[in-house]
């Protein structure tokens, strides 16, 4: 039990279960119930067109409001969920909330696409394709309105590269995005080999752009490379005007970051959209609008 809850592939044994391990162990056992109780929910972060500033999409980001520990960020429980084999359930939960949100917009004739993060481990789940397909069908959302953001590490795996899972997902009409591009095991050839539509420049580069020429150069290189391969480019972590202007001038397609908006809970997203576009997406009367 101790070894299973430990991180990494190599089991290590500690004489005493420290406070942190104990908490992780406990959190792991609580994930399923936390989803059922609504403790695990999502926030949405707008993504805008870099040239026109129109909102083009929202990224769905998971949140856990724990009754005793307070707000637990995804970086503290996604990895845990992967290790204990619960990441598939978390993905289904997030996908469900994202597509339900998308459906409510569709009911008001608003076609706003949603992005959902897809972890490494999910790509090797044999039923992933059928789960994504049935989630789309259940909510009546066309695949075109869904983007799955893959962390870069996920596609390096040989079994994933050799399987048809990405092509099959792509055939559902959805878009595939390579998240956190430029970190980890970057492989440029994969961008060409895999059915990827989009890359997201990792925020570690974007955050440094206003102060570092080196980071700007990296961003520019990624944009040029991606465009030469026919891919769209999203920059995440845009926090200031200077960075926004630099990216727009470099031809980056879409922007996401605190400058545009922080990730917002559903009701605050509604207000943000209303203030931004004048479209009251919560009211049933807003027919035939496109954001
Ligand atoms: P990510 O997919 O790269 O998401 C972007 C992260 O950057 C989010 O952190 C977001 O809040 C943050 N961010 C956005 N704009 C800015 C900015 O301008 N400045 C700064 N400093 N940060 C910004 P968050 O929500 O804590 O999520 C962290 C990571 O957890 C995500 O990185 C993603 O890899 C993972 N994650 C989140 N939700 C899910 C999920 O539903 N499933 C899976 N598998 N992973 C998820
Ligand atoms: Mg992401
Ligand atoms: Mg990212
Ligand atoms: Mg990330």
TrEMBL record:
<protein>
    <submittedName>
        <fullName>Diguanylate cyclase (GGDEF) domain-containing protein</fullName>
    </submittedName>
</protein>
<feature type="domain" description="EAL">
    <location>
        <begin position="24"/>
        <end position="277"/>
    </location>
</feature>
């Amino acid at each position: 039990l101790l070894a299973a809850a430990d991180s990494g592939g190599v089991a290590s044994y500690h004489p005493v279960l420290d406070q942190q391990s104990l908490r992780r162990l406990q959190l792991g056992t609580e994930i399923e119930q936390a989803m059922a109780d609504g403790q695990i929910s999502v926030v949405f972060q707008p993504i805008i067109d870099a040239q026109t500033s129109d909102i083009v999409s929202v990224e769905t980001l998971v949140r856990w409001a724990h009754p005793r520990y307070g707000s637990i960020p995804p970086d503290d429980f996604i990895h845990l969920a992967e290790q204990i084999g619960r990441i598939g359930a978390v993905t289904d939960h997030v996908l469900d909330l994202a597509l339900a949100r998308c459906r409510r917009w569709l009911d008001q004739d608003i076609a706003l696409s949603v992005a959902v993060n897809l972890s490494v481990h999910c790509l090797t789940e044999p039923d992933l394709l059928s789960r994504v397909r049935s989630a789309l069908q259940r909510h009546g959302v066309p695949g075109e309105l869904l983007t799955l953001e893959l962390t870069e590490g996920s596609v390096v795996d040989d079994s994933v590269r050799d399987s048809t899972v990405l092509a099959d997902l792509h055939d559902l009409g959805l878009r595939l995005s390579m998240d956190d591009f430029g970190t980890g095991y970057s492989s440029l050839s994969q961008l060409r080999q895999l059915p990827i539509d989009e890359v997201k420049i990792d925020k570690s580069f974007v955050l440094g752009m206003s102060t570092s020429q080196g980071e700007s150069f990296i961003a520019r290189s990624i944009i040029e490379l991606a465009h030469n391969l026919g891919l769209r480019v999203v920059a995440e972590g845009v926090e200031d005007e200077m960075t926004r202007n630099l990216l727009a001038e470099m031809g980056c397609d879409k922007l996401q970051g605190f400058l545009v908006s922080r990730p917002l809970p559903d009701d605050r997203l509604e207000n943000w959209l209303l203030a931004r576009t004048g479209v009251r997406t919560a009211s049933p009367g807003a027919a035939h609008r496109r954001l």
